């Protein structure tokens, strides 16, 4: 067997495998390494070729950690645009206050989409659409964490921003 053809084929195969590894769903990072291949017939002949070593990192997390969207919503939130406007999530109740006066209290669900939209009717504690059916209201929860809440009102496109107060 001709070792030059063998080594050429081996290097071409390594390059092809390295190129195909980029089709993986995880993010790929390559770190250059070198390999030395010595012909068994002539140990004095050595070929050194750069071959990539693939290191995988896990995909970016899309969850909110160990707490669900439902759990993060619980409590009172004050509007950053109008300090008199406060909303409260108490269990599955959405309570609206203005100037310390309770205006409404209605049940809510977290769903995959607004009522009547594709995917609606699939509630869950980690879904991103806040639906208050009694008021025919639906918001996309753009941001929710321990201190910030950002709701995009679907019907009007307005963005409401809140800070946690309790």
Question: Can you put this structure into words, describing what you see?
Answer:
It is a single chain. This protein has 166 residues and is mainly beta. It folds into 2 domains: 3-57, no CATH class; 69-164, Beta Barrel (Lipocalin). Helix content is 14%, strand content 45%. The chain contains 2 helices and 11 strands; from the N terminus they run αββαβββββββββ. The chain has helices spanning 3-20, 69-73; strands at residues 27-38, 46-57, 75-79, 85-90, 93-98, 101-107, 109-111, 129-132, 137-144, 148-153, 159-164. The strands form 2 sheets. Strands 6-5-4-3-11-10-9-8-7 form a 9-stranded antiparallel sheet. The chain has a two-stranded antiparallel sheet with strand order 1-2. β8 and β9 form a beta hairpin. The longest helix is centred in the first third of the chain and has 18 residues, at 3-20. The chain is globular, with a radius of gyration of 29 Å. The protein starts with a helix and ends with a strand.
């Amino acid at each position: 067997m001709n070792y030059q053809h063998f080594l050429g084929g081996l290097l071409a195969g390594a390059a092809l495998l390295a190129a195909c590894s980029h089709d993986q769903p995880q993010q790929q990072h390559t770190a250059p390494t070198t390999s030395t291949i010595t012909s068994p017939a002539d140990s004095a002949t050595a070929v050194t070729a750069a071959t990539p070593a693939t290191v995988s990192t896990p995909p970016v997390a899309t969850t909110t950690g160990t707490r669900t969207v439902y759990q993060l919503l619980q409590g009172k939130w004050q509007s950053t645009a109008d300090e008199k406007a406060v909303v409260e999530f108490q269990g599955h109740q959405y309570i609206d206050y203005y100037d310390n006066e309770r205006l409404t209290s209605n049940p809510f669900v977290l769903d995959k989409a607004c009522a009547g939209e594709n995917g609606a009717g699939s509630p869950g504690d980690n879904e991103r659409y806040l639906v208050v059916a009694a008021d025919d209201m639906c918001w996309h929860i753009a941001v929710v964490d321990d201190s910030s809440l950002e709701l995009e009102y679907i019907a009007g496109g307005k963005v409401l921003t809140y800070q946690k107060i309790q």
